[in-house]
From TrEMBL:
<comment type="pathway">
    <text>Amino-sugar metabolism; N-acetylneuraminate degradation; D-fructose 6-phosphate from N-acetylneuraminate: step 5/5.</text>
</comment>
<feature type="active site" description="For ring-opening step">
    <location>
        <position position="136"/>
    </location>
</feature>
<dbReference type="GO" id="GO:0004342">
    <property type="term" value="F:glucosamine-6-phosphate deaminase activity"/>
</dbReference>
<feature type="site" description="Part of the allosteric site">
    <location>
        <position position="153"/>
    </location>
</feature>
<keyword id="KW-0021">Allosteric enzyme</keyword>
<dbReference type="InterPro" id="IPR037171">
    <property type="entry name" value="NagB/RpiA_transferase-like"/>
</dbReference>
<feature type="active site" description="Proton acceptor; for enolization step">
    <location>
        <position position="67"/>
    </location>
</feature>
<dbReference type="GO" id="GO:0006043">
    <property type="term" value="P:glucosamine catabolic process"/>
</dbReference>
<comment type="similarity">
    <text>Belongs to the glucosamine/galactosamine-6-phosphate isomerase family. NagB subfamily.</text>
</comment>
<comment type="function">
    <text>Catalyzes the reversible isomerization-deamination of glucosamine 6-phosphate (GlcN6P) to form fructose 6-phosphate (Fru6P) and ammonium ion.</text>
</comment>
<feature type="site" description="Part of the allosteric site">
    <location>
        <position position="156"/>
    </location>
</feature>
<keyword id="KW-0119">Carbohydrate metabolism</keyword>
<feature type="active site" description="Proton acceptor; for ring-opening step">
    <location>
        <position position="138"/>
    </location>
</feature>
<dbReference type="GO" id="GO:0005975">
    <property type="term" value="P:carbohydrate metabolic process"/>
</dbReference>
<feature type="domain" description="Glucosamine/galactosamine-6-phosphate isomerase">
    <location>
        <begin position="10"/>
        <end position="225"/>
    </location>
</feature>
<dbReference type="GO" id="GO:0006046">
    <property type="term" value="P:N-acetylglucosamine catabolic process"/>
</dbReference>
<keyword id="KW-0378">Hydrolase</keyword>
Length: 241
């Protein structure tokens, strides 16, 4: 794991954006793995700026998102599809047909999970997977206790995650309790991972991820087994290392 510590989330996001941009410039036909949540917002803002001001070209890029809430249609303001459209896809020249976000309205999630995995494989696998981290150390929606070999599947959200995400829904009650998520095993198959974390409330999860034992209780710790992981932090998130 390569850990990069920048003084602010802005500087860290610029650094992360440079890594994504370098890949897209070197390999215009590539597959990116994307994440939602507050953490990657500034990274996406910087990619939009690079597209608008520097002509960064996403026209041949394919994307796969990590996860989606079960039951939310793409038009729901808190769905991850909506999030991606508003915060990235609507502002760059990616072909929306090449953007994939799991469908929270699928009827048979077992079959759907297999199909999503197949789509990733057909696209040649994920070149670079952007990741955030939950305060309990989860990646995507792989909550504590998730198998480190898990694949795309249905997952029940941990109470801590429901609490953390209540800020977007107005109340805990309104947060969906189920999600469809890439598994830890799926994520580990991407060729490179770029984990971002900002703020003091992520410091413990980051310390456990980077310096703790590899454990299903902190699914991000499985990244220690991956050959190419870059962790980009601000000083607050790095404060317990
Ligand atoms: C959710 C998402 C994760 C994300 C996490 C942290 O649980 N499924 O992919 O990393 O939230 O979100 P935030 O960046 O808002 O702290």
């Amino acid at each position: 794991m390569r850990v990069i510590i920048e003084s602010t989330p802005e500087a860290a996001s610029r650094r992360a954006a440079q890594m994504v941009a370098r890949l897209v410039r070197q390999k215009p036909v590539c597959t990116l793995g994307l994440a939602t949540g507050g953490t990657p917002l500034k990274l996406y803002g910087e990619l939009i700026r690079m597209h608008q001001e520097e002509g960064l070209d996403f026209s041949r890029v394919t994307t796969f998102n990590l996860d989606e809430y079960v039951g939310l249609p793409p038009s729901h303001e808190q769905s991850y599809r909506y999030f991606m459209q508003k915060n990235l896809f609507d502002h760059i020249n990616v072909d929306v047909r090449n953007t994939n976000v799991p469908d929270g309205r699928a009827l048979d999630f077992e079959k759907y999970g297999e199909r999503y995995e197949q789509l990733i494989e057909d696209a040649g696998g994920i070149e670079l997977q952007v990741l955030g981290i939950g305060t309990d150390g989860h990646i995507a929606f792989n909550e504590p206790g998730s198998s480190l070999g898990s694949r795309t599947r249905l997952k029940t959200l941990a109470p801590e995650t429901v609490r953390d995400n209540a800020r977007f829904f107005g109340s805990e009650k309104a947060v969906p309790k189920l999600a469809i998520t890439m598994g830890v095993g799926t994520i580990l198959e991407s060729r490179r991972c770029l984990l971002l974390a900002f703020g003091e409330n992520k410091a413990e999860a980051i310390a456990a991820t980077v310096e703790g034992p590899v454990t299903a209780q902190v699914t991000a710790s499985a990244l220690q087994l991956h050959r190419e992981v870059v962790v980009v932090l601000d000083e607050a998130a790095a404060s317990k290392l």
